[in-house]
Known about the structure:
The chain is of the alpha+beta class. The chain has three domains: 138 residues, Cysteine proteinases (Cathepsin B, Chain A); 255 residues, ABC transporter transmembrane region fold (Up-down Bundle); 74 residues, no CATH class. It contains 21 helices and ten strands. The protein has a six-stranded antiparallel beta sheet. Strands 8-7-9-10 form a four-stranded antiparallel beta sheet, covered by helices on one side. Helix 14 runs antiparallel to helix 18 and helix 17 runs antiparallel to helix 18. The chain is flat, with a radius of gyration of 33 Å. The model has no long low-confidence stretch (mean pLDDT 78).
Amino acid sequence: MSILVDFNNVPQRLLDFEARSYDERYNQSPLIRGLAYTLIALEWEGTPSILSDAFIPKPKDSDSFIATIERLGYRCDVTKLKTLEHIEGHPHPCFIEIENLTAIFLGTKDGKLILFDYTNNNTIEYPLCKKPCLLVSISEYSRLFREPPPESQDRSNWIKYAFYRYNNELKSLIILSFVISILGALQPFFIMSVYNFALTSSSQATLYWLTLFAVIVGFSEYFFKKMRVNIIATSGKDLAVHISQAVISKLLWLPYAMTSTAGVSSQLARLKDIDTFRRLVTAESTLSYFDMPFVIVFIVAIAIMSGTAALVVMAGLILMLVFCVYSRYIYSQATSKSSRANAMVSYQWNEILRGIKTIQGLPLLRVIQSRFSASHMQSTNDAENVAVTNSKVQAAGGSLIQVIGTASIVTAVIGVMDGTSDAGAMLATVILVWKALGPIMGIYNSISKFQSIKASSAQINNLMAMNDDKLTLEKSPPIRLFQGSIVGSGVSHRYTGAATGLTNLGFKIAPGAKVVICGPTGCGKTTLISILAGLEDRYQGAVSVDGYNIKQFNSYRYRTSINYIP
């Protein structure tokens, strides 16, 4: 019996996937059997357990098929045919959906479709009729080249590619924001029209028509705002879930040697980075970023009614922009000092916890206590400085916005007093000024988030740029089943700073044998077990299983082929 997967031995592959131990899994999710037949035809190197773990259940079988296939590294092509008569020449095997029937399309014979009904586990024939169908096939390119998606190739900018997935939604948000700005700029013109036309002519008909126009504009604005919020709620949630799943998956795929030495705080920090982007893509305040470019719409509307007021608003916006740059610089300085102090506190904690046995009972304890107290005090002071700086910046920015708005209103009032404008235009200008300042206030109030978003983005990009076990999965020989013969030759291992450890160890364990490893504390018993389990790869010598050096196998693939109970 072959230890590695033999792609040419299709009957054996089918027997592996039809093992009785998987009957319950197939009964729960029959599509897994259809996926298995499809992947065997593609000479997929995986095992039934890997397919079972990779399966993603969805309400529709077609969605489950696509999600699972893409999770395994392939790409899918979705084709909708108006009639089954056009199915000739379509690549197979592939998923097919005909009305209420879902199956695996295996080809055509004698004018009939050959389908594998994975629900009932049998092969059926279906006539070539004029019924429409949905086909989901694995692309020819991904069959030959299992290349990762672009965000995995340019891993230093992973966050950027994550947002590229939602280009259509971003375009929709931009268009909706522009339409909402146009409708928002029309509302003040209604007030101006009431003063200039309805009141001067004392015409109720004119008032009713203007009111009807205002109501239509108001409902339209509400409708488009609701559409925009729905996009944020749905696509934002999907993006947040995508980032969360990708980052958590990356953490789980990192080599054991890397995660075992990482501090708990550093791993929890990645969860905080996920939460930062979750709040960014799902919060309604994010809409201010889409409204900001279209402030120009309100400025144009102000210029139509009062050119001088528009100039004041423009000057105020430029002043606000300069102040934002300056305040961000001040805030960045404060947060960088606080970050250094927090890092020093974390370092002191790690030093204390890792060396607690050495520190206890020594005069060094007083030195550690004084260093920890000093770093903790500095961290507290810097955190207070950040809070004070943030409150000052927010107060100064709010006051500046109030000054800009007041100056614009005073300019509009002066225009009425000089006779260059009228009362209706003045009231409309007042409303437009605050509509123009609204997005700026929203962005300015979130200025403290810019630094955390930038830092979280850099941390996630650095994490996604790391090499993990998944990247080398396809390069590893596919394992079918180990017999269990283990041979060690010249195995040596030392932990950093340790004087003793495994030295030139040789052993041979027969399949099915029961072996006891004994020795004094610190001699390397746990380390040897970790080496045999594929958890520790920093050793010299060779460990072979059934004649294969375990280092030639991907760590994940090897660990899923053995049973290890810590």
